[in-house]
Amino acid sequence: MRELTDIIDETIKAVEELKRSGVTHIDVSRETLEELGKPPRPPTIAATGPVFLQDRSDVAVELAAIEARAKACTKCKELSRCRHSVVFGVGNPRAELMFIGEAPGADEDEQGEPFVGRPGQLLTKIILAMGYQREDVYISNIIKCRPPENRTPLPDEVTNCLPYVLAQIELIKPKVIVALGATALRSLLDIQLGITKMRGHWYTFRDIPIMPTFHPAYLLRNPPAKREVWDDMKSVLEKLGRKVPTASSR
């Protein structure tokens, strides 16, 4: 992990770039503000000399710096022209479980938060059924800007945006990733199979187990598939060493 002063300097540079481009304010998630407000624990010095922070409040600072760069990104000309918001991600920077979808929809583009429309409401229900609160996990997308008419992201758009989600994964270090839909899994692992064949099977990305499952938008069109998704989530809970909630406790 880099020194905290380096992270702060990088954040200041990113904010200055935004200021020069005409941006007057930056929307930051409630979770990030809470993390930034927590006092850091005193560092300890190992026998060999390096300093290590004892908590991960610095992760929220670094995530905020990356989010600032994402909000100023114009690599995808079409997406940067038509977007209302850059939808970076939301949740616990210490999350053991991370959900990654495809791209923001209209509601997400309007509100600047991933998975807040009808598919997002269903995802929240799934998270609650697993025994978590939404703020306990981390939620993001491969693409941070809404593609026009919610079309599938183009290969060059995935290439341009992928570094942001890779940075999120590297910083948060979740124990398990749930890939919501084929685009998310293919973008991370370059596996060219249909989601029906991929779901329910474990894959690995940078030593992190990944469980692919159907995207909540698909479940709205095909409600019977909810049973398969719940089977996948039970497997995720088992992988995390957590007890699967019974119907009465959900």
Measured between the Cα atoms of the first and last residue, the distance is: 38 Å
Number of helices: 11
Q: How are strands sequenced across the largest beta sheet? A: 3-5-4-6-8-7
The CATH superfamily of the largest domain bears the name Uracil-DNA glycosylase-like domain
Share of residues in helices: 40-55%
Domain module count:
2
Strand residues, percent: 5-15%
Named CATH topology of the largest domain: Uracil-DNA Glycosylase, subunit E
- Give the overall pLDDT as a whole number: 84
- Topology order in helix (H) and strand (E) letters: HHEEHHEEHHEHEHHEEHH
Compose a concise summary of this entry.
The protein is built from eleven helices and eight strands. It has 250 residues and is α/β, with parallel strands linked by helices.
How does this model look, in words?
A 6-stranded mixed sheet has the order 3-5-4-6-8-7, with helices on both faces. Helix content is 46%, strand content 12%. It is built from 11 helices and 8 strands. The chain folds into 2 domains: 1-72, no CATH class; 84-242, 3-Layer(aba) Sandwich (Uracil-DNA Glycosylase, subunit E). α1 (4-20) runs parallel beside α3. The chain is of the alpha/beta class. The termini are far apart.
